[in-house]
Amino acid sequence: MSLSKVVGSLVGVALGDAMGMPSELWSRKKVKERFGKITEFLPGPDDHFIVKGFKAGEFTDDTSQAIKICQSIIKNNGKIEAASIAYAILEWAEENDAFNKRYLGPSSEKALRNIQNGVPVEEAGGMGDTNGAAMRIAPIGMISKSEDITALVDNVEEASKGTHNTNIAIAGAAMLAAAISTAIDTDNWNTILENAFKAYDVGMNRGNDTYGASSKVRLKLALEWIDNGDEEEVLMDKLYNIIGAGVATTEAVPTAIALAYYAKGDPMKGTQLAASLGGDCDTIGAMTGGLCGAYSGIEAIPLDIVEQLETVNNVNLRELAERLYPYRR
Fold it and tell me: Which CATH superfamily is domain 2-328 in?
């Protein structure tokens, strides 16, 4: 079953990314006016400043960078190395002209330019606190053991160091990675969330100290709304307006985990909600999908959806995840 969940997590990242691609970085108001609720893959709108021309089912930088992390892990026989991952992300950026096409988030762009200019990897991302580390962290959760939270956070820190070497970014990414890792091992949400909060606490002592809201406190608030039975649209409005759906780690990560919890780990429902939310929809979708896929396994994602993702993006996600699986064991 754990193999199914590892595969489901990586495919779930791509699912959420592609589902949220058409609405990324649009306001909730604009998304609702244009699409209502997004329930299927749609092409990039002609008036979208980033994804114009994207095909239905095409994913963005979130999944592409997660794939680069997978490839780095496999290349290094399961070892997670900051320099290897940073240069793999830089390679992706150069291959896709990401600096000119506005595919990169602010922290990643600044850090990768630093690396291009010869700044050491350990110093390049010293101030990165946006959600770029968390958006591509699923592979780390996929191969890290949930019973050893400190080792998991070690892996998250190493994977994040090149672009997001701050306590805010590392803690947020660790919270999501621990949730994914634990969801592979159990379907008990209390255990999943408990480990996520433990990883957050450990992560807050890593990287460069910077200021920011607490992803942990924000997630706990969102979970209260869900447990109290808020109706779906009320919850969505609260997530967007209070927790936030922007590019900050402290907004995107708690919102994504809350959506996965609300969807009860259903990858289709979770990613559809994320795509319809407004804000950084593709990234929140990728994180939500990664957690839901880890919880429910690849069987919860319809085969035609999986095949469309792999065909449109010319990648074998299932095979890649299967190659990662032995490193978890």
Answer: ADP-ribosylation/Crystallin J1 (1.10.4080.10)
